[in-house]
Amino acid sequence: MAKNAIVMDKLTKDFESVRALDNLSLEVPEGIVFGFLGPNGAGKTTTIRLMMGLLEPTSGHVEVLGYKAQNESHRVRAQAGALLEHCGIYEQMSAEDNLEFYGRAFRMPVAERRLRIQELLTHLGLWERRKDSAGSWSRGMKQKLALARALLHRPRLLLLDEPTAGLDVRAAVAIREDLESLAAHEHVTIFLTTHNMTDTERLCQQVAIIRDGSLVAHGTPHELQAMVGSPRVEITGRGFTKAAIELLSAHPNVDGVIRQNNHLAIDLVAGTDVAALVSCLVDAGVHVEEVRRGQPGMEEVFLALTGGKDD
Amino acid sequence: MIEDILTVMWKEGKGLLRYNNNRWKSVAILLTPLALFGIIFPIQFRHQWLTSGWSVAVAVITPLLLISSTIAESFAGERERHTLETLLASRLPDRAILFGKLLMSITFGWGMTLFLLLVSLVVVNILEWTGVFQIYQTSILWLDLAASLLMSGMVANLGLLISLRAPTVQNAAQTIMLMLFMPFLVLQAGVFLLPTFLPEESIQAMLGYMNAATIVQILLSLLLAANIGLLLGAMARFKRSKLILI
Fold it and tell me: Do the chains contact at A84 and B89, CB–CB below 8 Å?
């Protein structure tokens, strides 16, 4: 059985009269990418702060890499890398000096530190501009630098708060691939909070969704999709008349129909015969070009489980 | 631990020379007291600069000016620029962060004061060259060294203590200024109010008992006590889990 990198047990945090986390219990196995999702203000950042020992829980406890975060947080911090809510870059310093400082802070030997800085900055396309003051950089470049800082000391656990926020598509894809490779080849556990559902679907082996500090759902993306959505069929074609759609909506096995131009997304009752449904559409004059079975995406799962709005 | 303290000092040094991301502002902060206290005053006082208490006054004021203008940045600046949380999430121990910031401020304030006293010494020697290099009178020299070091420590400790929980640099800077002026206000009030509480003969007797050396000893002891008290306060107040203000 896989060991757990993170164990939260009835973790609760109050800020005066506001309960930010409410009896959160969760286990994150080692070596996976774990997506921690929730609307703004759900308690994601508070959870990361509690794991790093930057806040004290009101009750409950959290164990990270086998250490209790309340009284052994220094051991957690030594073995974890973090990219927090703000990228935390020293803007008056150069990119190289930012990494040099954290390399020294993590007591990396000089030669290893220099090599690693060059490796990371080159990989992220920042090496040529390493002497620039980080303050003159774009948000995306700072975010890349912050990620390099989190990876610098080869941590066993990465805590990433919105790592691809502010990145262009190419950089976001590169970082997603890096994170996949880290988890797969170096057995690094990645605890990721994100609003990017593409990241979640492509990267995460497990996902937890919280709302108002409480756990709403936890499982693999497929489990969550199955939990939320009925089977779905997507039909592409021409001639989706109002009458044809009304006919479809009235069908006893159809839960809902969404039309977008030449595309229909139909939620079905489990066990529905799709072929019969298609022939019903053809009879109504629709020219069917493609039929595809599908499941709701993570975005729909997220909206369904968090009440449909991002507050 | 020493390696970690030096790491924090290294980082602080990088920031110190680029105050508010403006190198010219940093240079101006350094050059203003240097020009005034290191060149203009010695030109005015000449040989008297080496034997009178003027250099001691400068040794007290210089670290006060230099450190009070930069120390507010120590924690409040990191908080304002959102770098504090990342720093606290590193493996650096609490004491290393605290002492690294403190020692860099003291090194900056005291180092600059010593440099300024050296420059003023050179200026006096250039103006009044007697064939041998003149130095400060021994008692003045010791007083310069001790007073500037204790003053550097006191302002740095006080600034750090306030900056630890201040939400912004401006808030920290205002509180530091208020706290630094407080002793002078209390002293002033004491001078005015003392005759109403003590008979004049008692005051005269007390003043007669105290010579300059005793007053200096009392002031240095008070500064030393303030240093120790403020340092202990800052150490007690530095709690990682309390530094992120929500």
Answer: yes
